[in-house]
Structures
1.
Amino acid sequence: MSLDIRNLHKNFAGQVALDRINLRIEASEFVCLLGPSGCGKTTLLRCIAGLLAPDRGEIRLAGRDLAAVPARERGFGIVFQSYSLFPHMTVAENIGYGLRIRGAESSRIAARVRELLDTVKLASYAERYPGQLSGGQQQRVAIARALAVDPQLLLLDEPLSALDARVRDELRGELRDVQRSLGIPTLMVTHDQDEAMVLADRIVCMNRGLIEQVGPPEELYARPRTRFVADFMGHGNLLSVDWLQDAAPWLLDTRPAGISDAGAVCLRPEHVGLQCDALGEGQVTDFTFMGNFKRVQLDWKGRNLLAEVPARTRFERGDRVRVDIDARDCAWVEA
Amino acid sequence: MSAGFALPASRLPRLASAMDDRWLLNACLWLPLAALLLFFVMPMGFIAWRSFMQEAGGIGLANYAALLDTPGVWRATRNSLAVGASTTLVTLLLGFVFAYGLERTCMPGRRFVSLSLTLPMLAPSLVLGLGLIFILGRNGIVGKVFGFRPEIYGFHGLVIANVLYALPQAVMILRAALRGADARQYDAAEVLGATPWRQFRDITLPGMRYGLLSAAFVVFTITITDFGNAVVIGGDYTVLATEIYNQVSGQMRFGIGAVVGLLLLLPAALSVWIERVAAQRQAGSGADGAQAPVPQPHRLRDGIYAIVCVGLSTLIVAVVAIVVVAGFIRLWPYRLDLTLRHYDITVSGGYASLWTALWVSLLAATLGVALLFLMAFAVRRLTGWPQRLATLLCALPVGVPGLVLGLSYVFAFNQPQLPWGVLYGSAFLLAMCNLMHYYTQGYVTMMTGVRGVPVQLEEAVGVLGGGVLQLLRDVYLPAVRVTLWSVAAFLFMRSMVTLSAVIFLITPMLSMAAVTVMRLDEAGFTAQAAAFSTCIMAVVGSVALLMHVLTTRAAARG
């Protein structure tokens, strides 16, 4: 079962929300829509869910066009950021709701609910009300409710964003485990690139209604194709062609065909090699202790450069350093 | 797919098609919308039409011209303006003191003060006039004890009674305005070195601008359109409300009545407009997560506020309480032994009108809750012109004083030759009139309740396979249950005590409780009027108490 999105467009009062969206989600794949707020990722998710009608383009599930299929008949599961449980129903009733709508037998519902309560580790909470649960537990119930109807696609709209950091980490792992064991194709919207990297098989990085790049997390991090992706996926140095011509001409040889002079090299800070050297051309201007590493600002050949070194490395402000850059660590990005 | 799934997708029963749903959703809108068109828009159309229908025949402005040489109307207008302006001024001043005392001081007795402010809402407005007469009137307790008989009938009595009647509503608006303030502004001003007086002038007053303006218009409108007090304590001092009644019911001059009715729309419409502008302005200024300032104890200030507010509250309680007491006294204020004989009411139709009022109020509450709930649901779910039309129409009834509404019903429904003429003289029409009278307030409350329903929950139901019926049953009804009860209680209580709208619609066969109180008082049976008022207050008070218990319990449950 795969989901195919072809050439999707959506405008809101003249504002482009989705532009030429093409995307395919394979069976049992976990895909993350990643981007800043307003990039169109939630709009795309809502179009797929059937909560919003696209202006143009098509969405197909296993070859079947979904345009005329309302949300209630798509058979998907959805989990929102918060506030989506029925406050007057118990946890068990919430989870069984979709099956009740479909007129399933009560014994079958009860069995399914028990099974899912185990899956989300809330077996002893069946008779509680949502108001008596923590935020993390409520989201587990929401996930169980979405899974109960055996969805053909699981849609997650920032399901972890309203949670505390620790709970978020824990639930992140569980979400990944559940998705892997059930093999349900899943689409998650998030603005947190760490979350996307931990969870996703593939990340869809979006900006201003356009898909900037699609690929596995490692690829988007190490080989971003645009400035936007390079910026959004983590810290980095963007070295312009002009500057490289004076400072590091040997890196220009790696420039692939098709990258104009407006392009740049993306160099992740952990790939900037630093050695204390009184004759070095770099000078440390500032550094921040980050626990397991140090983030160092330096002045090198007329520009500011960001580097990350093991925490135990000793630097003082004003120290001279030698800077080593390996051309293999550099990724060329478009303008 | 995992083997753990108990229900393969192919075996799920097919869900109802989306087309059935659209139909249902539209019905939710059109049913209440049709009621609004028939029982509000049409009567208003009739009153406008009648104002151009000349007594001599034909269509023209003769009624408007006739108004110029009807001296009674001009005197009544002058008097109404004088009473309205004085009442507004006094009410705003006192209302501000009350609101500030309740919201921004730690004065003792706040519970008593806010409780006393609910009393005038539980009774027909004329009960306040009645109470004043028992205290200060010709046969009042003050006259008996001190031999001092102030001229209470007329301007002064009218102003006092109206102030007592309008005060709770003014306090409500002003308190809301005070609550909308942000403590951080005061903290910032304090840190910057502003004195309390400066903070009051620079933060408190500007923040209350619209609240004050809106309260002023509300007070002015209810004062000049109030009927009960004008009859009970107005004496020979005629005002517009009584004059319009005389013109229509006494002299059968319907054209003049229609013209004056339309003129009475002006101040009310203005107040509605100001409230809307205020709401928009305030919406822009309110920062997210604004925290209302928490007052710190301040002995002198708290003491002064306590003396003023508790003193005035005691007066309100006394005015209402004296009515209850007088109903049990053999001959107020001369023979003070207790008796129940005033409760044996046989004149003016006896208790029949109380049962009618109960029935009409129940009808208004039930119909109102059903129509308003469907309307609020549909307005939230639908888009397009019918939804915009409904939103607009729902906001209009608050701009129409009860007096004008009642008059318009006479024009629209006292028409035996038209199909809807059969409704005239029925309890159903009285119920609809009362519902339309308080429609907007009920709608706003209902909308607030409906807006509290999380969008995510609705969408979750949609994705899980639910339609309009499931939305109503599993999301909306549970979420707004308490709102439904409070709207029902509000409509019931208002319907029990209102006089100005129904005064035109009652017939010898079908009278309302508040009208009976007025008739008893007019006929000189003041003790019976007091007894009858006590019965009304007992009913309305019980409902209010029940509602209070219900909402606090619901709030405690979360």
Note: Chain A touches chain B through 45 residues (CB under 8 Å).
2.
Amino acid sequence: MTVSPAMSEPRAETGMPAPRRRRLNRKLAPWLFLAPGVLMFLIYVLIPIGESMWISFFQWDGLSAKHWIGIENYLELLDDDAFYTSLKNNLIWLVLYMLAIPFGLFIALFLNQTVRGIRIYKSLFFFPFVISQVVVGLIFSWFYAPGFGLFFELTKWLDGTGIAILANPNTVTYGIIAAGLWPQIAYCMILYLTGLNAVAPDQIEAARLDGAKGIKMLWYVVLPQLRPATFIAVVVTVIGALRSFDLVSIMTDGGPFGSSRVLSYYMYEQALSEYGYRMGYGAAIAVVLFAIMMIFISGFIWKMWRDERGL
Amino acid sequence: MNFLKTTALVALMGSIAIPAMAEQRVLKLFTDASDPAPKAAFEQLVKGFEAENPDVKVEVNTFDHEGYKTAIRNFLTADSPDLANWYAGNRMAPFVNAGQFTDVSDVWEENGLKDSLGSALKSMTIDGKQWGVPYTYYQWGIYYNKDVYKKAGVEVPKTWDEFISNCKKFKEMGVDCLTTGTKALWPAAGIFDYLDLRTNGYDFHMKLTSGEIPWTDDRVKAVFAEWKKVLPYTTKNVAAIDWQDAVSNIVQGKAANYVMGNFAVATFKDGGMTNDTLGFMDFPTINPDIPRAEEAPTDTIHIPAGAKNKADAKKFLAYVAKADVQTKMNEELGQLPINKNSSVGDDPYLQAGFKILSTADGGIAQFFDRDAPAQMAKAGMEGFQEFMAYPDHLDAILERLEKVRQRVYKN
């Protein structure tokens, strides 16, 4: 990656010093421009994070008075099977969701050609990303549904009894991830398609003259040029995996018997659902989820910072 | 005659109109009656009350049914109405214990409600006081496909043993004896509640749901032993099925019986069943020595502690409790009145329900998720769902529930 010229050198200190007011303005102006953003960020991100952490030390049903219990919520988490189920599922989500990147790349390479009507094919492949997650969830839960689902009927034809993916605690998470991958692959594909537009044709030409082709061409010539696209694809996929809430909620409500819960859904269940109203406990789960996200986010920020400095 | 009546009425109205305008008092009612039928029922109720009390104006504020469950927690503490809808049993306990509802025992006493609303007295009482007035409920029981019964050549069972032996016949025909859809968890609780009410009785069930009996108790295990008998004849993969989808199993004759609440009748009929093909029976007897208890979730009206016009709110409660008012209201709702002097429409399912509920001498349970506190209910229903899929996990499930019990009721 090249360094953009935006990070220009400090202005050469020549000529007359600027009048005081202008200097003050120059110092103040960036802060003024930043102010709306900073304010929003404070109100809607930073303060709520702090508040969540604060609430996680209380026992509170949202109705009566808060009751300070220190780290008891966290101690309870350590002894909570449902929490470990959610944590495990979150890990499965993280790992399997990454499949969206190679699949997306593959489809992008496949579609990156000039054939008649290629735009139609591209938009067809992009289609699942455009529809809402709720619709994706519904489509897949009907697809899997015992009794009338296409997938169920297919497995019934094969093995006689049929496999109800969403009723089996061992398969349910994979079933939901498969539904999530569908739009996520489309997303990664579009990222790579735009990336492929930026691949320098002269380098391809040069590589071809040197006799590179197939996998080697892809690995040594194309992929390095796609690094920015890959980076973004990893970021959105990791975040998508960690906040996987809507599909779980639509397809299973965390079931059967809580085996498809993920942290974000468990947090919602404990704090906000009909059977919950344990604000403190929900907040404690949120804090754990935040800590996990922080690992990735700080990794990304560190990498971006390094790139910006051109290391 | 008619003319006379009208003139008399006009004259009467004229004479009271002026003082009424002078001091019209306001009564604020918050309700979750957002569906068409409940909405119409409440409009009619309010109109009737205003006609009887011209000096009171009732302002109704209707919330979305699901949103109401969250909203009530806010408005009770912040901006309290004079009247609010809620549910009986343990569902009202958090509000009663937090001092958010007004004690209305005097309304019960003065209007003889302990007699006329007797079937709901237990579920409206906490600490020996009454905290609201019930206006409607509906029965649970077993809905069955009469054609399937005819084809199998079996009788409608009276006892659980007969029920199970019928199941064997259904299985030979390739029909599921019992169907359900537990994706939303609660349908499984209906089965558990009835098995417990029939095996151990109302008092035990109430003690269990209020946390006085450990889940690892042998009597609880006995309930699951009864349940296990029917599991081989139950539809497979119910955890992934919505309750409405399970209805179609009955409609299409793929299954014979369904433990459900009366609200499901509309869904059965949408699927094409009629009074001739859809049957209703009381849940069969398991232990004949136990007084018969039933399950009937009850909807109620309460006076929040922060109400500004409690005097008129109490008048309103007394009005809601009247026999004729409940008759009319429940005609709109398509449900059952609680007042024993009310009458029920021609609907055969309501007739049957009214009969079994008004003669239930064991008591009336609200439903697992209303009798047990929220967290216990959630864990319990998940346990039932797991048990239906993996009956061998029973011991692990019960131990988990016991752990939850010890935490939930501690405070």
Note: The CA atoms of residues 152 and 163 of chain A lie 6 Å apart.
